[in-house]
């Protein structure tokens, strides 16, 4: 009996310490099992509502016709071991029964411990709130597909819920959490067996789907309605996702690189209101990431005087005389000028454009003050103001504080709003125009002709200057465009508005709009935007020989 106990102790150590997956790998167990006439052992596990059965030992040389079940349970799972014997348990001798009981106790203890460790590993791969895989579970799945050499069959998707803040504001934190949990569970049901949907915390998800199913999954991103109770009332809310997608290949297999690429695409999608789905393209994403870096660098650049103001002359057609200018911001970054097309949209998106507009106004007033002190000729200069300013009160007062600080006559400053500002918030823009005009500041509509409500705006808003967009003047052979332009110029004249044609580059267009009655031209035909020093030189010689 002592020898048997010694063998059982060795068996325990083998199972616990050597990580043995099958008890048949332990020679001592086979000897004991044969001694007791055990032909087969089947283990049944019940865990989180699921039941699995597996054969953990078999000896075909034994004719096992009897069975005995041993049940073990802990707080998470239940184990049932079914032993198949060549003779009935009741026919075993007392010593044999003791050996059997010791053997089964050690066996169930060892397997239970091993399974508990595996269960803990499995639980560490599951998001507790939703029951779907988490970040660890995703990585395990990715590595499995990688080991099978099937990465090129898949696409990785990084996604998050659009408008999560809106949900919080509408329903509160707890209801929003319930919605996201239900959405995660519903999204998970759309996955095939060889695909994965994982929650990466909060409203963030990471999926790995087969390429041929990608379009179907993307369709689900915008059409999964979630029903939930808000108080006592049943409510339905449709959730949409924005996503960054990387189609995998055999060239790049590192999971961190793949996830970083997908995340960079998602960052771009977050910043582009018109584009919720962004695919990884090395050149395009590199460009977008450069723009994201620009966004983070703008505040420091403003403090470091990297932003400069250029001035594009406005020229009267009849006498070729410089009659004013538009102040335009440029970014001189490490000696290289960054195109406004790169940083202005970013500044608009973040609201930083408010600081840039005030910087241009301040810089322009400082220049006009300098000319005034030096006794030089002063011409009116226009400054663009974004529609973002209209979300905040007292715009006219803020502008006047700057003019008063530099002792600038309001008539020397013209404030330009784009046409979209008028259509986005009519009441706010009307108040801003009325307030500015009340102070004597000239107000103009920029880019007239790019929207769809222009004629109504001509009637309802009392601005002083109408700046016609290049699209109305650029095509010299467009008969319909000619009629539209001629009639707009006529209406502006009847309404006592000064007109300026922008973006003029061709002599024939200059002659055409002159005959139609346009007063002033701004464009490369006469001059490009000029640095401050060159513009001051042009003020001294204001007549163009063209």
Please tag this protein with its features.
alpha/beta; eight-stranded mixed beta barrel; about 25% strand; 19 helices
How would you sum up this structure in a few lines?
The protein is built from 19 helices and 20 strands. 46% of the residues lie in helices and 24% in strands.
Topology diagram in text:
Layout: H1 2-17, H2 27-36, E1 38-47, E2 50-58, E3 66-73, E4 77-85, H3 94-123, H4 135-147, E5 154-161, H5 164-171, H6 173-188, E6 196-199, E7 204-210, H7 214-220, E8 224-230, E9 233-239, E10 241-247, H8 255-271, E11 277-279, H9 282-303, E12 307-316, E13 322-333, E14 336-338, H10 340-350, H11 353-374, E15 381-384, H12 395-405, E16 413-418, H13 419-424, H14 426-439, E17 442-448, H15 454-460, E18 465-468, H16 470-473, H17 479-494, E19 498-502, H18 507-516, E20 520-522, H19 532-540
Parallel strand pairs: 10-11, 13-15, 15-16, 16-17, 17-18, 18-19, 19-20
Antiparallel strand pairs: 1-2, 1-4, 3-4, 5-7, 5-10, 6-7, 8-9, 12-13, 12-20, 13-14
Helix pairs in contact: 1-3, 5-6, 8-9, 9-10, 12-14
């Amino acid at each position: 009996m002592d020898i048997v106990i010694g063998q059982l102790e060795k068996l325990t150590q083998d199972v616990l310490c050597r990580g043995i997956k099958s008890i048949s790998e332990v020679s001592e167990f086979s000897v004991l099992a044969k001694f007791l006439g055990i032909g087969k052992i089947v283990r049944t596990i019940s865990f989180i509502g699921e039941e699995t059965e597996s054969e953990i030992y078999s000896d075909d040389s034994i004719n096992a016709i009897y069975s005995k079940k041993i049940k073990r349970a802990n707080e998470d799972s239940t184990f049932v071991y079914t032993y198949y014997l060549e003779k009935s348990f009741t026919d075993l001798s007392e010593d044999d029964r003791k050996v059997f009981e010791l053997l089964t106790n050690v066996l169930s203890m060892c397997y239970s411990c091993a399974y508990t460790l595996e269960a803990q590993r499995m639980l560490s791969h599951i998001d507790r709130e939703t029951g779907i895989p988490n970040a660890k579970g995703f990585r395990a799945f990715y590595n499995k597909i990688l080991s099978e050499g099937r990465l090129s069959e898949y696409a990785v998707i990084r996604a998050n819920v659009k408008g999560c803040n809106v949900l919080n504001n509408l329903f509160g934190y707890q209801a929003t959490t319930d919605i996201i949990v239900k959405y995660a569970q519903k999204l998970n049901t759309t996955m095939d067996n060889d695909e994965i949907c994982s929650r990466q915390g909060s409203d963030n998800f990471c999926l790995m789907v087969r390429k041929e199913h990608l379009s179907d999954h993307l369709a689900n991103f915008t059409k999964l309605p979630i029903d939930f109770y808000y108080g006592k009332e049943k409510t339905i809310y449709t959730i949409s996702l924005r996503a960054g997608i990387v189609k995998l290949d055999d060239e790049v297999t590192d999971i961190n690189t793949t996830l970083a690429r997908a995340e960079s695409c998602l960052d771009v999608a977050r910043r582009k209101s018109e584009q919720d789905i962004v695919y990884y393209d090395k050149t395009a994403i590199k460009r977008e990431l450069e723009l994201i870096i620009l966004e983070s660098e703008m505040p420091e650049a403003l403090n470091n005087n990297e932003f400069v103001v250029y001035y594009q002359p406005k020229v009267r057609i009849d006498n070729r005389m410089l009659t004013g200018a538009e102040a335009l911001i440029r970014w001189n970054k490490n000696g290289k000028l960054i195109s406004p097309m790169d940083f202005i949209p970013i500044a608009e998106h973040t609201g930083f454009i408010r600081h840039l507009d005030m910087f241009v106004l301040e810089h322009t007033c400082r220049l006009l003050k300098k000319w005034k002190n030096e006794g030089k000729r002063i011409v009116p200069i226009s400054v663009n103001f974004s529609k973002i300013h209209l979300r905040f009160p007292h715009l006219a007062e803020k502008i006047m504080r700057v003019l008063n600080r530099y002792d600038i006559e309001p008539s020397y400053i013209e404030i330009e709003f784009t046409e979209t500002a008028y259509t986005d918030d009519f009441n706010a823009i009307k108040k801003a125009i009325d307030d500015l005009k009340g102070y004597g500041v000239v107000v103009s509509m920029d880019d007239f002709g790019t929207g769809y409500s222009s004629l109504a705006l001509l009637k309802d808003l009392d601005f002083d200057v109408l700046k016609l967009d290049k699209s109305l003047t650029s095509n010299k052979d467009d008969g319909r465009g000619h009629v539209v332009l001629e009639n707009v110029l006529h209406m502006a004249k009847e309404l006592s508005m000064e007109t300026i044609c922008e973006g003029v580059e061709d002599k024939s267009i200059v002659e055409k709009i002159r005959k139609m009655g346009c007063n002033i031209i701004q464009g490369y035909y006469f001059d490009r935007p000029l640095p401050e020093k060159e513009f001051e030189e042009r003020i001294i010689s204001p007549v163009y020989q063209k």
